């Protein structure tokens, strides 16, 4: 018997970097990003008049009127606080509801909308959404925006 050795060139494909490109490296998401997403999702719910306490809304309105004083973050994330971990997040929201709407229903809808938006956009698991209703907007009540001294 003779030994046969294959003299044909042997081609092997080596995978460089090992694994799926999506798993190479880390993605971190800032608290402010989650806060903006949650704030916008909460505002989309019927019955939510505003976000934040009266004081924070007044302060934000003044800041927004000063050239260079306002920012997208101040409006979009007003009334939202997020704690973001590597794979989970927890949120605290402060809302003002319109008079006449069932508060429990609005809170439930806000919770569902916020969880869906944050989980879809960030991939983080939302472990809790705490909602504090700080005020009720009456139909004849004016919004708490101070008059501008600037013309």
Oligomer: single chain
Distance between the termini: 103 Å
Helix content: 25-40%
Briefly note the structural class of the backbone.
alpha+beta
SS element count, helices: 4
Radius of gyration: 25 Å
The residue-averaged pLDDT reads: 82
Most strands sheet: 4 strands, mixed
Tell me the total number of β-strands. Answer: 4
Describe it.
With 151 residues, the chain is of the alpha+beta class. Helix content is 33%, strand content 22%. The chain is built from four helices and four strands. The chain has helices at 31-43, 54-65, 72-76, 103-122, and strands spanning 48-51, 80-84, 88-98, 125-137. Strands 1, 2, 3 and 4 form a four-stranded mixed sheet that branches. The radius of gyration is 25 Å and the shape is elongated.
Give a brief description:
The chain is an alpha+beta fold and 151 residues long. It has helices spanning 31-43, 54-65, 72-76, 103-122, and strands spanning 48-51, 80-84, 88-98, 125-137.
Keywords summarizing the entry:
151 residues, alpha+beta, 4-stranded mixed sheet, elongated
